[in-house]
Amino acid sequence: MPFQRTPPRMRLLVVEDNPSISENLVEIFENEFEVDVASDGKSALVASDRGFDLAILDVRLPDMSGNVLLKMLKESNPGSEIIVHTGNADLESAIAAIRGDAYAYLLKPVRAEELIRTLRHAREQIILRRTSEQLQAALASSEQKLRHIFDSVGAGILAIDSQRRIHFANRGITEMLGYSSEELLGCDVVDTLFTSAERAKCRIGLEGVLRGEDLTFEAACTSRDGETRLVQWRWTRVHGDPSDDAAYGVGTDVTVQRDLERRMRAQEKLAAAGTLTAGLAHEIRNPLNAAVLQLSLLSRLLRKLPVQENRRLTEPIDVVRSELKRLDALLEDFLRLARPRVAKASAIDLEMLIGDVVRLEGEAARSKGLKLDAEVESGLFARGDVDPMKQVLVNLINNALEAARSRVSISATSAAEWVDICVRDDGCGIPKESIDRVFEPFFTTKPTGTGLGLPIVYSIVRSFDGDITLESSGEGTLARVRLPRWADVPQQQDDPTTSGG
To answer: Which whole-number Å values give the CA distances from 457 to 41, 435, 467, in the listed order?
Structure first.
């Protein structure tokens, strides 16, 4: 049998009780193999301890059955191949040899060419098996190294098949979205990871990827605990076996980045609006003050007129006075937006502050037939300033009262180094296209709104290194104000900064 490469020199164990046959076998194979000879079962077991690759085994031995020895030799050298040969063949012996995992069963006398061919085939079988094992070990090692590399990458990496089923997920995905890799394997990537609003778009996009298109997009994904994360994905098709319609996706969590960008845009808009409104406010206030003075003069002149004439003119003058007051209040909002007050942070007793606000807004809630309740952790203090924070809460509660169907609630809880003040209503919620714009100056969904209330609220909260977010799922809205927690509880509870204003 011709070979394209030089085969490795293997160890051959010859177990034969006939000395002449043993000598012939050694003479035939000593140039190709390292030959070891045993004349009985006991010496064969001793030789097997030194290891062997191939064996020629006689069934009839003086001290034990060859088939019994076959089993023992296979157990001691599981990767070996053993050729059984005998001069007294019977069906039972042949069946026992096959059951003992013999490579071949030959009858004596065996022609040298047949024995050589059989032994070389057995050697090639061992070479193929060992090569396969080495390749599998190398592949496993390569896969392990590749997984280690993938797990070391900060981004999440997914591999999917042509049915969008996940068959690989690295550690970045599990850390980003909270699922274990075992939970993700075999799941539809779109149905499992993307929010319901994003699924149709993602299905269409991944169909294109599986056809060979590269795709980059941002989409909202749902974590295992239900939190929504904004993830930027880059998907590409794996080009290789045409039957393997697989694609890889690399996902980066950009939730914080986009939130920071949103805040920066809001701050820039606030600054631009502040500069503009400051100039306008000063220009408008001068004629406004003159109008107020002339209106006061006109009111004094009316007192000199007859009663009937006085009453006829008083009503339109009162309307003008009311509108001038409203315009003055609007100018105050302009100036407040243009020149936010310098934050003078101190400890705010949230229980007292929220209690004051609830009492202040209680009548407004009752007049609308709404319930206004509060739940505050006792002894909870935040870093801020009472008066501007009271303005923040009044604004948020007024908005909630306008939207609520039956109830508005306000709560304050601790969260590590922060405190969360939440105002929740059970109204119809805020449309998705509006919720990202509510802190922009002059943006409003109200027919008579100015669009300055929430930008001012945002500016106040940020001045205390806090944050404010709005969450709306179509069934109510949650406004969450997060302020730094004041760790040291003030000793003087009657201090004006902790009295709730």
So the answer is: 94, 15, 10
The first and second tokens of residue 277, run together, are 């409104």
For the chain, count helices (H), then strands (E): 15, 17
Angle made by CA atoms 187, 190, 195, in degrees to the nearest 5: 120
d(CA 121, CA 83): 11
In words, the CATH class of domain 154-253 is alpha beta
Fold of 10-132: Rossmann fold (3.40.50)
**What's residue 221's pLDDT?**
94
Residue 153 in contact with residue 170, Cβ under 8 Å? Answer: yes
- Picking from 166, 206, 211, the residue whose alpha carbon sits closest to that of residue 185 is 166
Cα separations in angstroms, 105 against 95, 99, 462, 464: 10, 11, 88, 89
Q: Is a pLDDT exceeding 90 seen at residue 194?
A: yes
DSSP element (H, E) containing 49: helix 41-49
- Phi, psi for residue 270 in degrees, rounded to 5: -60, -45
Q: Does residue 187 register a pLDDT over 90?
A: yes
Q: Are strands 81-86 and 54-58 parallel, antiparallel or unpaired?
A: parallel
Determine the residue type at 54: L
Half-sphere exposure for 269 (CA within 13 Å, toward CB): 18
Confidence of residue 491 (pLDDT cuts 50, 70, 90): very low
Q: Are 239 and 211 contacting, i.e. CB atoms less than 8 angstroms apart?
A: no
CA 226, 228, 233, 235 dihedral sign is positive
Integer Cα distance of 189 and 16 in angstroms: 64
Q: Which residues contact 8 (CB under 8 A, 6 or more apart)?
A: 127
Could you tell me the two tokens for 484? 């730094």
| 14 strand-pairing partners | 37, 56
Query: Would you state the pLDDT for residue 382?
Result: 93
CATH topology (fold) of 346-498 = Heat Shock Protein 90 (3.30.565)
Q: How far is CA 118 from the centre of its chain?
A: 59
